[in-house]
Amino acid sequence: MAYPKGEKLSSDSITEITKLIQYRDINGQNRLFGGRLMEWIDEAAGVAAMRHCGGDAVTLMVDSLKFKHGAFINDIVVLIAKVTYVGRTSMEVRVDTYVEEKATGLRRAINHAYLTCVHVDDKGRPKPIEFGLKPVGITEQAEWEGAQKRIAIRKQRNAEGY
Ligand SMILES: CC(C)(COP(=O)(O)OP(=O)(O)OC[C@H]1O[C@@H](n2cnc3c(N)ncnc32)[C@H](O)[C@@H]1OP(=O)(O)O)[C@@H](O)C(=O)NCCC(=O)NCCS
């Protein structure tokens, strides 16, 4: 679908990636290697950001990356990414990661992360995003308002050298 300039919905950027944990993904404790999960999170966020801005995007930063539970060999891992806030050139993307129970299909949250991605031109310079984001419903509105607080915290931390 070709979008007119204007607004997109958070649902337009939704990106779901499903992985089966294999030997190449685990550490010495048969546990999903954190670096591998970070790679998948970055990939999911990048695709969601590109879907929103309609071009290239790079990852500027990752925050709130908390491993709440482990995942193990032969587990099904599902990552769901969506854009939660859009600035002039940057986007905030939330990525939720779950382990999907094979017997029931129930998904247990193991991680959530917020990433800041920047729309870039063909020289890698920040480029204005042509599409705003229209939050729909209470949850998306809360994400939007939360993003403004998170951006202020990120800028504060940056100013303090973290
Ligand atoms: C991302 C990159 C292009 C940004 O370039 P830059 O000159 O620092 O860009 P700007 O200062 O104009 O900031 C760009 C956006 O990021 C935001 N930003 C920058 N620093 C920020 C911080 N500490 N916290 C929150 N937002 C920040 C700015 O507010 C701006 O967003 P806005 O236009 O929506 O307000 C550049 O830093 C880069 O190329 N980084 C490497 C990216 C990369 O290789 N990633 C890994 C592979 S994808």
UniProtKB/TrEMBL annotation:
<dbReference type="GO" id="GO:0006637">
    <property type="term" value="P:acyl-CoA metabolic process"/>
</dbReference>
<dbReference type="Pfam" id="PF03061">
    <property type="entry name" value="4HBT"/>
</dbReference>
<feature type="domain" description="HotDog ACOT-type">
    <location>
        <begin position="11"/>
        <end position="123"/>
    </location>
</feature>
<dbReference type="InterPro" id="IPR033120">
    <property type="entry name" value="HOTDOG_ACOT"/>
</dbReference>
<dbReference type="GO" id="GO:0009062">
    <property type="term" value="P:fatty acid catabolic process"/>
</dbReference>
<keyword id="KW-0378">Hydrolase</keyword>
<protein>
    <submittedName>
        <fullName>Thioesterase family protein</fullName>
    </submittedName>
</protein>
<dbReference type="InterPro" id="IPR029069">
    <property type="entry name" value="HotDog_dom_sf"/>
</dbReference>
<dbReference type="InterPro" id="IPR040170">
    <property type="entry name" value="Cytosol_ACT"/>
</dbReference>
<dbReference type="GO" id="GO:0005829">
    <property type="term" value="C:cytosol"/>
</dbReference>
<dbReference type="GO" id="GO:0052816">
    <property type="term" value="F:long-chain fatty acyl-CoA hydrolase activity"/>
</dbReference>
<dbReference type="InterPro" id="IPR006683">
    <property type="entry name" value="Thioestr_dom"/>
</dbReference>
<comment type="similarity">
    <text>Belongs to the acyl coenzyme A hydrolase family.</text>
</comment>
